[in-house]
Amino acid sequence: MALIRPFAALRPKPEYVQDVIAPPYDVLNTEEARLRADGRPWSFLHISKPEIDLPPDTDPHCDAVYAKGVDNLQKMLNANILEQDTQDYYYLYGLTMGDHQQIGLVAVANVEDYDSNRIRKHELTRPEKEDDRVRQIDALNAQTGPVFLSYKHDPVIDTLIQTITAQTPTVNLTADDGIKHRLWIVKDPAHISSISSTFDAMECLYIADGHHRSAAASRVAKKRPTTSNAAYFLSVIFPDNQMQILDYNRVVRDLNGLTPDDFLAKIAQNFEISPQNTPVKPQDRGEFGMYFNKQWYQLLLNKKTTDDPVASLDVSLLTNYLLDPILGITNPRRDTRIDFVGGIRGLTELEKRVNSGEMAVAFSLYPISMPALMAVADAGEQMPPKTTWFEPKLADGLVSHLL
Prior knowledge:
By secondary structure, the protein is an alpha+beta fold. The chain has helices at residues 17-20, 30-37, 45-48, 63-78, 111-115, 127-140, 155-165, 189-200, 211-223, 260-267, 314-323, 347-355, 370-378, and strands at residues 4-5, 10-12, 82-84, 90-97, 100-110, 119-120, 142-143, 147-151, 171-174, 180-186, 205-209, 232-239, 245-246, 248-252, 271-276, 287-292, 295-301, 338-342, 361-364, 389-390, 401-402. The strands form 5 sheets. Strands 1, 4, 5, 6, 8, 9, 10, 11 and 12 form a 9-stranded mixed β-sheet that branches. The protein has a 6-stranded antiparallel β-sheet with strand order 15-17-16-19-14-18, sandwiched between helices.
């Protein structure tokens, strides 16, 4: 089967797009989603986080929540808020955040290629999060959260995208967070054929974000071997040279029993430490910022790094030379003394967490690059937890895939 294929998307009718689209289900907690959807009966949050329509003490993973999602989807279909295209198309999805713009292809990707690692992974998944997505897909009989994929940019696809996006988009709006969303429908059979053949000739695709959604799609496909639509999963695929990865920073609750002086002395064994008068946003690999006792420091690693694609990552270097041996954070995935702060929140969020007394120390990191991500995936390895923070985020509700 083909690596990707066109599909008949379930989309909001043009006059309702602004009312429907919502942030991804996993970037808001229940209370944030409840506030965001207040007074917005057609917000997709009623489908992606339906616990907001049930009593506040409702378990978000109980049967009633998935059933409520089905009810809310049916309500939007009955009201003609959402409608399915009558033919299979590709779609182009443009995202603009400030000066950054990226345009991706909306398609469905082959589950078999995910299973065989032609669609490559770089993260471990958690069973409970997979289970949630499986139950959500099964209940809705639809994939509503697209997987964020990437490919090595290709001149044929670049030219096609330029040609198609010269036309007026079907959707052109700015969401309440300032992100601009545009959607073009690719209806020309020649364009559809060229896209399909060009992607099918590619060696692989890479998962940027959506490991649990893709893993869940694979599980659902195995449960539905005779359902052709379940053999593919909803994706938006961006060229690697347009991806924007922000820093993913760390805060730690205590100094592992060390005095401030002892803490700094131990760091000095592996890093050059320089106090700074302004927040430290690292400008290169091997440089870290540290906020501690209301003081910013620049940390420069003075150890020789490795060529290993995982061990050479800044998140690994920070763990191996500081978090583990000095602060006792041996397993960042499970240790409750460490927390992670996406770069979209800025360095002031690190200061806030430390100044409040909630955390003792914060570390700012240089963002990982797409080539580094691809090297990890190509090696069949996994990144440490909370390594990548992609912006801008895909909206939920703009396109869905019915099974």
